[in-house]
Amino acid sequence: MSEEESVKVAVRVRPFNKRERERNATLIVEMKGPTTVLNDPSGENEPKRFTFDYSYWSHDSFKEEASGYLAPAKPHYADQNMVFKDVGLGVLANAWEGYNCSLFAYGQTGAGKSWSIVGYGPNKGIVPLFCDKLFVQIEEKKSGGEAASFEVEFSMLEIYNEQVRDLLNPASKRKGGLKVRQHPKLGFYADGLKTVAVNSYQDIENRMEEGTKNRTVAATNMNATSSRAHTIVGIKFTQKYQNAAGQETAKSSVINLVDLAGSERAESTGATGDRLKEGAAINQSLSSLGNVIAALVDKANGKQVRVPYRDSTLTKLLKNALGGNSKTIMIAAISPADINYDETLSTLRYADRAKQIKTKVAVNEDPTEKLIRELQEENEKLKKLLESGGIPEKLDDDDDDEEDVKSLSKDERERIRKELEEEMQARILASEQEMEEMKKTWEEKMQQSHTGPTVPDAGAARKEKESTPHLYNLNIDPQLTGMIVHLLKPGQHLVGSSNEESGETPSILLKGLNIQPQHAAFIVEGDKVFLDRCQSSPDAKIIVNGQPLTEKDELEHNDRIMFGANHLYIFAHPKQAGSQKQPAMTYEEAQAEINQNSGFVLGKGSLDDLILNDDLVEVMPAIEQANDMSEEMDKKVKFEVVIVPAKVLGIVGSKTEVMVKMRNVDLGLEYLWTKAKFMNRKYLMDEMYESFSDGEDINWPDERDPFTEPPDHEEMIGGLHLYLQSIGYKIEAKEQLDLTDIKGIEVGKLNVELWPCTQTGKVLRDEDAFVDDPETDLKGQPLAFKVKILNARGLPDRFTDIYCKFRVYTMEPFQTQTIKKAINPDFKFEQLVSFNAIDSQELDYLLNGSAYVQLFGKQVPKKREGKKLTTKQIVKKSGMLKGKDIGAENMPKATVDEGKVGYQFQILTLKKRLERLEKKMAQMNKVVEVAEKSSKMRVKTETIKTVLHAKNPDAVEKAIKTIPKDKGAGDNEGVNGQPPSQESKACVLL
Ligand SMILES: Nc1ncnc2c1ncn2[C@@H]1O[C@H](COP(=O)(O)OP(=O)(O)OP(=O)(O)O)[C@@H](O)[C@H]1O
């Protein structure tokens, strides 16, 4: 018997984080009862309203207790207990009834998913509280004399890069991770996933800690970005008892607690527009989840649609949770800040969609015998199919996943047949294992789970730390900080990757980029702890408090230590802790310290500086790692940071940006990547490096290789600002201007001209066009001018297919023709630009603004000469030093001298204006001269106007000639003291 049930959705808003506070973020979320309101900080859109099953206000109105627990100061604050009472207890009740349950947290990185699901320190999240309560209730049942037996099994896995990693059994790591298979009775499962029997909360806590530690080690060794991983904690709760008929019956519930990867949208991760389609690769699981939800919503609304569970690892494993037999709850974690408006809106929309999904829930309660019989029958069927060697018409029992086997080619059918054969063998094995498990007694299961290496007792380890000097790790994900601890007891502790040759295994075993077999050594003498280099690795990278370690150094409490490219630790000395007032640094602070010592010293005052600092903290270590990977895998690529002022990019409204220059050191090609594009590429580089470390072939085709850019990729050669002030006075301008690249280095010259003209494009020569006072003479008038881009001179010779692009005001960009390979391309380009009736904003733009002109081209690879060198050798030869070569020289000091170009134009315009005014003065002098000669005291204003605004010299002459004949000037009237006549009012006394 199954019943339909809607997915329940909760939304939770967290306090401002440090980053948001520093940026003076404003609160844009309101909660009123079940309604959540999101206000658009730009005011452009109406506030968005959403209604969910639960709304949790955890933004403010709390007080921190001595234990660190955040408790309500006002009743509307939702603390961890409140969330657990609503959500966790509901899941628990369902588990007792024998329903499968799923709880997943969705939201952008740092929105508070882990806070709700796992929790931090004393603020325990749903998973620990759930597990704790489960065992409390089991004990209560047992002591109440319940005849049933209770079994709890625990598993923990991570999906990273579509691969499944067993967090309880990292040693099982195989190529490509655990395989996800589908079983007709058991559904999708990760083949070989370790499931352990647990019989106390402490047991689960230890396992969770072990799993998180394994996750941290793997993430650090592989430079993995943990926010891109999905973690699934699985708990299987089984109650066994005898039913009325005396049969042994199992009532079971599978509970999935899912902490999803950060939900950043493709646009904001820079995944759009890159040929590598990182968006698809990186968040394949998350975007598939979106598609599955959309399809399930359609289905709930009566549409016939296929639900694409098979498109990703995550959706396969969550199939039951989403569309099958499971009571499902989603927690949407959101930031309260205006700066995250887009992401928050997207999260709330996602949640809004999810609440429409309906699952079919049923109690899992059957006699064990029946379950075993069904599995046996299934196996018989599978064995028969295997013997027949054919492919079934349907690949599995699920209508949603039906594939059209008939339409496949012979080869494809053969491939599928082989895969199916393997799949069926695995299914048979899974059924057999499941049957075995069912037959096992609980005692046997417990014994099995507790053989092998003992799981460290998290509590005992914490105690030992309190009295022993130790190192603990820093990670960009606060959840993973402090997970790795190395105790430093008296004696010597070698740090390094394992060294098979010498047979010496370092006691602090590190893996990954740039870690030497013997990297460093800690020497503990009494209360003193020293760090030293190893003689065998003089080049090993060791940084202490931001500075390279040069000699044996005595460490102090809270010192920061970096080994290789990504192992960052804090040294803690409990005996010194009391005398230290400063708290230990965070990951961000320790990384900023390293950046500063690499030459990146940014101010701390402005908002822009803060954003730049944050970006650098994210990018710099990644660049260092990317360069190390490039050297190790010999990818012939070198990366460096560039700080690019927005003006140089020609993007209106944007700020200074951290970008990354990718240089192919072999072919002499350079590409500029946005930070987001680099970070996405970095994720793929890590994937490649992992394959490389596993000894796999990394000869990937270019379209998959994150270290390449296709040869036809366009790059900006240089740019300049073309000031339009002269046009505001209708004066022409002809100039040769400096073209500069993003670092402000001159890369050539551009010859440009600006010509005032009529709306039809007729050029207006100086004399007849000049405008003295643009405010009065141009406003409301039509205005047109021509931009001529004649040619560029002295460009770098690696470019071909060169063209110029520019944008005037808000118009669509204009583009010249493309010139094939040339260092001096002639564009001979002319563009008429016109305004119908100039308004104040347009006039302001003309008088003070500029058109940004950019030159683009494609790069031609350099011909390789002589011996082939490795990346390392080329980098060394070209003098790019390690560590400090990631772009400190690219601080915005050498950027384009905006002022220079601007003044050049202003001076030019001023000169011309002066010329025109002098000309007018000369004409007026002539008027005076003629009037004097003809003894005229007064000249008609009309004549003067004609002279001042004459369109050509002929008109001036003509007007002057009228002066002597000027009959109505009334020369003497004013002199006689008589009131001037009507006509004489329009005269000027000379
Ligand atoms: N309700 C809350 N109260 C107080 N602090 C919170 C709350 N939610 C989150 N935080 C803090 O915000 C930070 C980010 O939270 P958390 O690690 O839970 O985010 P996340 O969404 O899981 O991020 P990621 O995707 O990186 O795993 C943490 O330092 C955490 O302590």
UniProtKB/TrEMBL annotation:
Binding locations of ATP: G107, Q108, T109, G110, A111, G112, K113, S114
CDD domains per the UniProt record, alphabetical: C2, FHA_KIF28P, KISc_KIF1A_KIF1B
Coiled-coil annotation reads: 907-934
Keyword Aminoacyl-tRNA synthetase recorded: no
Specify residue ranges for compositional bias: Acidic residues: 395-404
Q: Name one GO biological process term.
A: microtubule-based movement
> What region holds the Kinesin motor domain?
6-357
Q: How does it sit in the membrane?
A: Peripheral membrane protein
- Cite a GO CC annotation: microtubule
Q: What is its main location?
A: mitochondrion
- KW Acetylation (keyword) present: no
Q: Where in the cell is it found?
A: Mitochondrion membrane
Annotated region (Disordered) at: 387-410, 446-466, 963-990
Record keywords, A-Z:
ATP-binding, Coiled coil, Membrane, Microtubule, Mitochondrion, Motor protein, Nucleotide-binding, Transport
Instruction: Spell out the family assignment given in the record's similarity comment.
Output: Belongs to the TRAFAC class myosin-kinesin ATPase superfamily. Kinesin family.
Q: What does this protein do?
A: Microtubule-dependent motor protein required for mitochondrion morphology and transport of mitochondria in neuronal cells.
Please report the name of this protein according to its UniProt entry. Answer: Kinesin-like protein
- UniProt source species: Branchiostoma belcheri
> Coding gene?
LOC109479249
